[in-house]
Design a protein that fits this description.
This protein is α/β, with parallel strands linked by helices. 34% of the residues lie in helices and 28% in strands. The chain is built from ten helices and twelve strands. A six-stranded mixed beta sheet has the order 6-7-8-3-9-10, sandwiched between helices. Strands 2-1-4-5 form a four-stranded antiparallel beta sheet, with helices on one face. A two-stranded antiparallel ribbon has the order 11-12. Helix 3 runs parallel beside helix 6 and helix 5 packs antiparallel against helix 6. The longest helix is centred in the C-terminal third of the chain and has 16 residues.
Length: 250
């Protein structure tokens, strides 16, 4: 997937300014930057939840705006920050929604097997008959990820997947994201505020400042003391754990 000269304005204010980058296939890419830097807006345009003003998002050799919604949803799944389901659904019913682009609501034996596999992968077997609103925040996030797995797409877009999770469940969620890439071969694009999660679990980083790409590269190329100071205007002390850069700001 290639993003070229992507631009977006809100009320005449330029919030995404001529953004260019390529999403590496089969890798984990994190979009980072200060609040208001434009990263979530870029994610919204990639997923077609936000209309772009100009520029090109090319997916599989074709402008993403030219894809039919059902066809695109067989290749690309999106999990937003706010997933408020108003219906009274069990975990299994929620996960089954992931098969809709393929089944149109008429589940086949193969669909049920994929749903079973997604539930098992996220270790939700004992919870599959419980209602979503009865689960803890971490359990709900796992259920939504299972729905994404059941959708069976090559690309997965996650907007703040650790939002509203405590450190235990946030760390578990990031390990799951890493497994989706390593075990299932999915291309993951995430918006993250927690830069240590981005550094530890990503392959590539795209850093935004004031609507522009400030830096793009591997984790070791981007997550340096000098670059982070430019991105966040804060001083950082860098260390490494298991070969991954981690930072403490001061």
């Amino acid at each position: 997937m290639n993003i070229t000269n992507l631009t977006k304005r809100y009320n005449q204010q330029l919030v995404v300014d001529s953004v260019d980058f390529e999403i590496p296939k089969g890798r984990v890419l994190s979009l980072i930057g200060p609040n208001g830097a434009g990263k979530s807006t870029v994610m919204g345009m990639i997923s077609r939840l936000v209309a772009k003003d100009s520029g090109l998002i090319q997916f599989d050799g074709k402008d993403i705006s030219q894809w039919k919604s059902r066809d695109l949803s067989r290749h690309l799944a999106i999990l937003t920050q706010h997933n408020n389901i108003q219906m009274k659904l069990t975990v299994r019913e929620l996960v089954a929604f992931g098969r809709f682009p393929w089944s149109g609501g008429r589940l086949t034996r193969q669909d049920h097997k994929i749903i079973d596999d997604a539930i098992a992968y996220m270790e939700l077997g004992q919870l599959q008959d419980q209602f979503i609103d009865e689960l803890s925040g971490g359990q709900r996030q796992r259920a939504y990820i299972a729905m994404v797995i059941a959708q069976d797409t090559g690309y997965v877009l996650l907007d703040e997947p650790t939002n509203n999770l405590d450190i235990y469940h946030a760390s578990a969620m990031m390990r799951t994201v890493r497994r989706l890439c390593d075990d299932l071969g999915k291309t993951i694009v995430m918006v993250l505020h927690e830069i240590n999660y981005a550094a530890f679990y990503s392959d590539y980083i795209c850093a935004f400042v004031e609507g522009k790409v400030q830096a793009f590269g591997t984790v070791h190329e981007v997550m340096t003391q000098e670059r982070l100071r430019k991105i966040y205007n804060v001083d950082f002390e860098m260390m490494e754990i298991q070969g991954k850069p981690l930072s403490i700001y001061y």
